[in-house]
Amino acid sequence: MPVRDEVTVFEAAYARRLPVMLKGPTGAGKTRFLRYMAWRLGRPLVTVACHDDLTASDLLGRYLITGGETVWIDGPLTHAVRIGAICYLDEIVEARKDTTVVIHPLTDDRRRLRLEKTGELLVAPPEFMLVISYNPGYQSLTKNLKPSTRQRFVAIDFDFPPPDLEVEIVAHESGVDRETARRLVQLGGLIRNLRDAGLDEPASTRLLVYAGLLIHSGIAPRRACELAIAAPISDDPAVREAVLDLVATVFPE
Amino acid sequence: MPVRDEVTVFEAAYARRLPVMLKGPTGAGKTRFLRYMAWRLGRPLVTVACHDDLTASDLLGRYLITGGETVWIDGPLTHAVRIGAICYLDEIVEARKDTTVVIHPLTDDRRRLRLEKTGELLVAPPEFMLVISYNPGYQSLTKNLKPSTRQRFVAIDFDFPPPDLEVEIVAHESGVDRETARRLVQLGGLIRNLRDAGLDEPASTRLLVYAGLLIHSGIAPRRACELAIAAPISDDPAVREAVLDLVATVFPE
Amino acid sequence: MPVRDEVTVFEAAYARRLPVMLKGPTGAGKTRFLRYMAWRLGRPLVTVACHDDLTASDLLGRYLITGGETVWIDGPLTHAVRIGAICYLDEIVEARKDTTVVIHPLTDDRRRLRLEKTGELLVAPPEFMLVISYNPGYQSLTKNLKPSTRQRFVAIDFDFPPPDLEVEIVAHESGVDRETARRLVQLGGLIRNLRDAGLDEPASTRLLVYAGLLIHSGIAPRRACELAIAAPISDDPAVREAVLDLVATVFPE
Amino acid sequence: MPVRDEVTVFEAAYARRLPVMLKGPTGAGKTRFLRYMAWRLGRPLVTVACHDDLTASDLLGRYLITGGETVWIDGPLTHAVRIGAICYLDEIVEARKDTTVVIHPLTDDRRRLRLEKTGELLVAPPEFMLVISYNPGYQSLTKNLKPSTRQRFVAIDFDFPPPDLEVEIVAHESGVDRETARRLVQLGGLIRNLRDAGLDEPASTRLLVYAGLLIHSGIAPRRACELAIAAPISDDPAVREAVLDLVATVFPE
Amino acid sequence: MPVRDEVTVFEAAYARRLPVMLKGPTGAGKTRFLRYMAWRLGRPLVTVACHDDLTASDLLGRYLITGGETVWIDGPLTHAVRIGAICYLDEIVEARKDTTVVIHPLTDDRRRLRLEKTGELLVAPPEFMLVISYNPGYQSLTKNLKPSTRQRFVAIDFDFPPPDLEVEIVAHESGVDRETARRLVQLGGLIRNLRDAGLDEPASTRLLVYAGLLIHSGIAPRRACELAIAAPISDDPAVREAVLDLVATVFPE
Amino acid sequence: MPVRDEVTVFEAAYARRLPVMLKGPTGAGKTRFLRYMAWRLGRPLVTVACHDDLTASDLLGRYLITGGETVWIDGPLTHAVRIGAICYLDEIVEARKDTTVVIHPLTDDRRRLRLEKTGELLVAPPEFMLVISYNPGYQSLTKNLKPSTRQRFVAIDFDFPPPDLEVEIVAHESGVDRETARRLVQLGGLIRNLRDAGLDEPASTRLLVYAGLLIHSGIAPRRACELAIAAPISDDPAVREAVLDLVATVFPE
């Protein structure tokens, strides 16, 4: 498998002012990648965690009454457009439909943002970039991106890092030695293969790092894996037992 | 097939003050056509992207408190009526029912807009025109235009541009050579024939342009088509593989 | 078939202060008839297009804050009662239940309107009349008039105008010659006979006028009928083809 | 059938301060009876038409801002308690649950009304009486009175007036002669026997009066019955034809 | 059956500061018992009738704007905590989930109430007691107390009073002689045995008292039982006839 | 079974700044444990009981108008971040989705909280810790933690205390002698074994303490167990009888 080209692709999209969608499971490194790219491109990053109750006003801004005066306060999207930042809408499908529609004019070739409430029409500077993330694993029938939204983005697929890189990440972020990190990554791989056995979502790299941190604090490896991996992954006793069996395989002592 | 008559029809409707509905799939050029017609007729264009939470007040206007005074601020529809603009309600079926009803008096022969909240009764000037867009492809049972709304519009059908024109568009907008543009358009045609195979919406011209932009930036054609066409179109692995097979057919190297 | 007696009946209801319900399909001339009767009786006409989000306050009025003071603003129903107008609630079943209840005291023999929020009790002057419209064609199970509301109105049925009258209307309003108008009316009749074939609503006179206007602007008759009649009526390809076949029958050249 | 005892029962309930529920179909005279009893007992009558959106605040009162001050405005129920009126909640099941609960403390032996928002505790004077109406005919599964509410009321059943009385009412209120009134009442009786044939609600006395008024204005009896009885009762063509057959039987000329 | 120990149990719970749940059908005397206990313990009683729309703010308090200042107004629960009253949440399952959660900190051993909006943390004085009522008879699947709420209360079961006591109550509160009261109580018992025959809720003592009051006012016993018992209990003709048969058995004259 | 290591694990998580999830049934001591850890670590504890209507603003803070000025008031989560407290979101799955999302940035390695409404970006001090509780026993299909939330926490499982410790707790908190406490704990164990027999939730230690308190107040043990354990646990007569049989086994006198 060749080295992945995410950095190249992202830079091409940035240069061409194309909006980008990061697709992949929780913990596959979408957010981490974007933080790196923002640093690499030298642009500020404005992140919005999308949810059911996020309104268009939360993104665009609203009037507040201060000192008897009504003052307009930019929302994070408007702010990002004004300063030419990278605006990141995390888990976009969680947002209400109107949020999705608000970004349409920013994603066609005019790259404009109309603030109906102030009457302003902002033209995004060349530095502005819109990025969304999307996890195809647990989309429901009622929550999905409309084709007219999806087809506005170049989509980069994300999966878990290759084992060698993941070992390095776990060792570096948790402080455990390479051998322990290698076993944790091996455990992660085994659990990810269980995916069809009733797990909603495979174990993320984050959980491996958590287990490493507990091991580094003196908790026994098996117990650390139970606390940081098995319990957070599932409430189903059968799934949990299967995971603990894998733990016992990897940490046999 | 003769040259299409959209421009003639639109100008006739404008001259006769008939409201117009643009029907067709995402990316078939409805918005682009309307921007051209607004420029051709020399009228400003006011666009409103409709969504679930769009209220009648968002269209008509509302009172805001500024400096201790309540001030009326026109919404985009009211604004368009006052200045004699073309008002474009994009994806009208996404809006709530009250939005749909608000436009009724503007679409009969009186062409009036009553602002209940200010008591004003605006008569639209001859230059004012109402245009809506509508995508019959993904209407659900719960979201549909009522007959009493539909039957107020002359309806112009849109489909993707004929191949020659689409090649020209892709080449011009992405910067790739004619041969690459021709292959991308060929790919688009092949994917559009998959429509019955589980695709919600065929690949739009926009996606072909995106792929061209990435190719022009040095991304290999196959990878560019994966990033800009296959991934944005579908999450279904089977559909995706089918699309990638088509990509491999068109770009065999 | 004898000349219809709508004018006589409406005048009797007006003289007896009975509320009236206009029943019939879209485009059968209910609104047009009411405008004529308002002019004939010399009373102003206040029209309210009902919709899902129409609240009782929208009909009755509300307090607004202006210049630091709370000021009561009459809604259209209250306004109509005060000035003795004809108040027309168009498509009443679209309104929320509370709208329907608000009109009850105006439709019994006391003809009173209580404004809870101001404490006022208005007695309608003899000139005041309440009229509602109702389209039995596309009522759903969830949207229906309760018997306790329905049984407060004298109901006048409306259907499309007889052919001769409709020819005159189409010719006069679109500017086409009598022969073309006759063919358009013939087409309307043929389409109305398709009603059981999957059409939600038959073609209204308005659509025939639109087609006439396009023909008068130089669009070929068949294309004009496609734009103004076939496309607005249905998205179903089978229905559409059937309609276009009828068009070809009526305009064989 | 003995003379009914509604007046005696109502007066006994009033004397004993028992709340009363009037049960029966639309147009059976519940409201008319209550207006009579209020006049007979010399008490003002405060009527509230209940609906889906009636809040507890609509009944109890609310604070309004006037002249920069927050002023409490009594709602109709509070007002009725203060002045010792008869308070009539018409079609109580249409109201939201909280309305129903608000009246509980007024219907037990303490007869108190607590205004949480002002901190007041009102004790109802002996003259205050609470009356609700209820139509068992079209209650749905979701809209019903809870037992803990129902069992707080003495329930008086209402049905249509006996034929002789109904003839007198129709003759007096519409101005037609006794023979015409007798035929209209006969028609009403025949239609009420159709009840199982798909009619939601039988023809009320009010509709008979409306038909009489139109006849008195010169409309032919059959047409008057069509306008005022057949059309308001049902949209179902079969039911309607059945009703028109009955009309033809009663008015054979 | 030994004399019931509700008073002893309630006093023990009060002394131990345990919250209490009163369980039982409508009209079994839960509210009456609590009023007695409040009088016996010399504590004020604050009652809140719970319903669908009761918010946490309704219980805790809210800010109001008076004279240009925002003033905090205690809700009934806060008020009861401050003055050391018995706070009674009647029919708690009718309330929204957030109401239920608001009382949690008052029911564990800290007995505290945090007012997020004022930043106050109230510690309940020893005299404060929380009591809820709950009718297991008509709980639906969607409305139920969560285990984490239920298990915070000592639960006292209530049923109808024993016949001798009920006779005394009916005689005393309605003014009828003992023989009539005995027959009414006998009727109540017979109807309660019908419970499985389609009655949502058995006849409460209150209905027997109502019937007694009407009899005492001169209404014939059978008619009084129809008005005050049969009609309020059910709309179902079969159930009603069954109840009237029982009435005829008890009052054979 | 070795001594449990909750304290060690929690201290390791605190030192490593890992967020913690406490999993287990009602009454297993999750809240009690957290209160102990907050005391042990010398950090203030801010508790939020989550419910259906808890908004992001309730957690983060909101603007209030006081003295004519708009003043920002921190919510409990913001407050906890500012002062470096332990913030405890009790029964997190009860909260709306937006609450869950609000905590995401506090649970990744940046540990930041953005207040969109004030524009502030708070970085949590090292002393700040986020803890949530979660009861896997009665989660429904619609209420569940998303994987992307769950996988941010180290999860510590809780169950009821071992018998010896539970005897000590019951004796100490209720004042009964050890023998009575032992029997109550025995009863608790027997009831917990009924779990599959239709009990939503097993009897918590709290209920055993309640029963002890009533016994200590002089209520007979069987009656105390009925009041404090059997009745609060279930409304189902069969389950209740089973529980009372167990009571009779444990307290045979």
UniProtKB/TrEMBL annotation, chains A, B, C, D, E, F:
Keywords: ATP-binding, Nucleotide-binding. This is CbbQ/NirQ/NorQ/GpvN family protein. InterPro entries: ATPase_dyneun-rel_AAA, CbbQ/NirQ/NorQ/GpvN, CbbQ_C, P-loop_NTPase. Coiled coil: none annotated. The keyword Nucleotide-binding applies. GO terms for molecular function: ATP binding; ATP hydrolysis activity. Residues 166-249 form the CbbQ/NirQ/NorQ C-terminal domain. Belongs to the CbbQ/NirQ/NorQ/GpvN family. Residues 19-153 form the ATPase dynein-related AAA domain. The keyword Magnesium does not apply. PANTHER family: DENITRIFICATION REGULATORY PROTEIN NIRQ, MOXR FAMILY PROTEIN. Pfam families: AAA_5, CbbQ_C.
